[in-house]
Each structure stands twice: as C-alpha cells, then as structure tokens.
Amino acid sequence: MPRRILDRLNASLETWLPEQRLFMKSDTATRFVRLRPLTQAMVLSVAAGLFAWSTVVTALLFIDGISSGSSMEQAALSQEAFEHRLDALATERNARATEARDAQNRFQLALEQVSQMQSALLASEERRRELETGINVIQSTLRRTMAERDAARADLAATQTASAGAPSPEVQAEEMAQTVDILAEALNSTAVERDQASRDAEAARFEADKIALEKRLLEERNDEIFTTLEGAVQVSMAPLDRMFKAAGMNPDTIMSEIRRGYSGTGGPLLPVSLSSKGAADLNGDGARAETIMKRLDEMNMYRIAVDKLPFAIPLKGGYRFTSPFGYRWGRLHAGIDLAGPVGMHVHVPADGVVTAAEWESGYGNVIKIRHDFGVSTVYGHLSKIRVKVGQKVSRGDWIGDTGNTGRSTGPHLHYEIRVGGAPINPMTFIKAAQDVF
Asked: Predicted confidence band at 378 (pLDDT cuts at 50, 70, 90)?
C-alpha cells in the first residue's frame, strides 16, 4: 500500500486513537516502540472479533446443553410412562380375562340349570299324560262294570227260580257295591295324582320362565362386558401396531416368530361345552370371548416382543446427545454418541446374547449383542466390560461402563442398532416408543 495512503489513514484516526509510544528501558539504554493509529485500530479489530466469536460459541454450547438435558428428561419420562403403561395393560388384561372366565362359567351354569328344568318339565308332562291315560282306562272300566252290573240285575230276575243254589240277589248287589267302592277309591286317588302333576308342571313352567329371564339379563350383562373388553383391546392394540411399524418392523412377522417360540400345549382335554340344545357353543358369546382372548394373547406377545427389541436408551440420566447418525466428512457415522462422565452404567435395552466383548480398533472396548428378529446392538468406547461372550442378558441388565477408549475425543457411549447386519438410526426405535407411550 503506498505510504501516502497510510499517512492519510493515520492522520484521520489520530483524533480517536492518538499515537502511543511503548518505552523499554535496560541497564545501558532506553528504547521505545511507536504504536501508530492504524496499528492500534487493527489490534482492536482483532480483539473485538475474538470477543464476538467467543460469545457466539459460548451461547451455542449453552443452548446445546439445555436442549440435551431436556431430551434426557423427556426420554426418562417416556421410558417410565412406557413401563407403567405396559404394567397397567397387563393388569387390565388379567382383570378382563378373569371377568370373561367368570361370566362364561355363570353362563354355562345357567344353561345347565335351564337344561335340568327342561328335563324335569318334560318328565312331568310325560307323567301327566300317563295319568290321564290311566284315568281314561279306569273310567272305561267303571262304565263297563256298571253296564255289566245292570245286565246282571236284569238277568237275576229272570233266573231266580232256575238257580236254587246260586247266591241271593242281596248278596250279589252287596258284592257289586263293594266293586264300585274300590273303583271309586282308585278314581279319586288318580285324580289327586293328576292335580299334583298339574301343579308340578305349572311350578316347573314358572321356574323355567324365571331362569329364562335370568339368562336374558346375564346375556345382556355379558354383551356389555364383551363390548367394553373389545373396545379396550382395540384401543390398546392400535398404538402397539403403530410403534412396531414406525420402527420399521413388520408386526405380522414378529407375531409369527413369537408364536413359534411360545407355542407349547398339553394337559388333559375336558368335554366340549354344550348348550341347552345339545350343540357346541361355537357362536355368540363364546365366539366373542374367544376373539377377545386371542387379542389379549396378541397383546401379551407384543409385550414379549418389546422386551426383545431395543426401544429403550442404554443410559439412564446424566448424558448429552453429542453426535447423530449419518455422514461426517464423507464417512458414515453408524450410530449415535451419548456423552457423559467415565463410569456411567450401560444397560442393555432388550433381551439378547453377547456375541463380542473385546477390544476392537476404532471402537476401543466394545460389546456386541444379538437380539431376536435379526436385530443387534453395539456399545463402543467402554471403560469396563461386565459381560462375556455367549452370556444371555435381559432387558435392563448392567453390561458395562462408559469410557474414552479407542478413537474418541472424550468420554461417551457410541451406540448402534443393526437390522440384518445393516446399520440404522437408533433414534428410529427410540422415537417410535416415545410417540406411542
């Protein structure tokens, strides 16, 4: 730059930044350094730039710390709510299953009572018909006997002189009267039995009507219970379906694999429950109860699947989310980084088997765990490894401590999820559970 331009700049800045001299004295001489206005302006500009940069960086770090703390608290609350929701669903499922079994037992008992009353009613009706037939026979016999008696009296007058050794008319009339008395007594007894049978039949019909009313009320109550159960199961199942789909897992495939692993059967077989009509109860309340039990069984299988898939975060409190999943400087960062002090407990988020627990270049101390459904997880940069290869671990077990081993700039946990061997963003599973619970 030409000297005259520098001189003009110094002259224009002289008003605000007068020339300064810095004196340096030694034992033999005194020297000074002259600070011209332009030099002072440059130094002040650099200092102001450094101050502004420091302020911006500090603000960014402070905001990042606040957002990370908030995410940690939300994750902890979501995890706790998720576990409480599962426990509540299991308790409600058990209560509804117990109510359904009790209602089914009461329904079967009512059907048995109705069947017994119908049998008694049919037997009473058969007895009544038999009594009516007996009464008709006795009446016919009585009429025939009376006709024979009248005929005998007519013949008696014509044959009195021909039969000297025969009984007298008075004796024959007395015998006939005794016969009539016997038949009358038998007729009265039959009439009493007929009246009693009629009363028994009427009582049986009244009891049958009463049982039919109780059965109808029980059916209405069962229908209300079944409707409530069906609604509760539907409301509970829909979010679980969405959660697995959001995590990229096919619910039908998961259900099939769970059924294959939990398909044991056995035990004695009880007789088929029959209705009052003698047919197996395969429709109506029985079919609805069977459908509800199947849906509750699916909910239970979802609970098992939740324990086998990494929906939880491996650290509990006191960490910061420092690096996401994705490409950095042209290379794939296959997981997420959760920063925290050395020694934080690392918990496995799902049931599985340890496939590696060793030192590996880049990862440092690393643990690899194989879960069901082709899912595996990786935990890198650990300070301590607390599991062995081949060891089975359950959801929530303590498997290691955070550290700063391998290629790491500070203590943190590098966490990966792989499906079929390919890395995916762990936040896919974590956010899927948070969106539902």
From this structure: very high
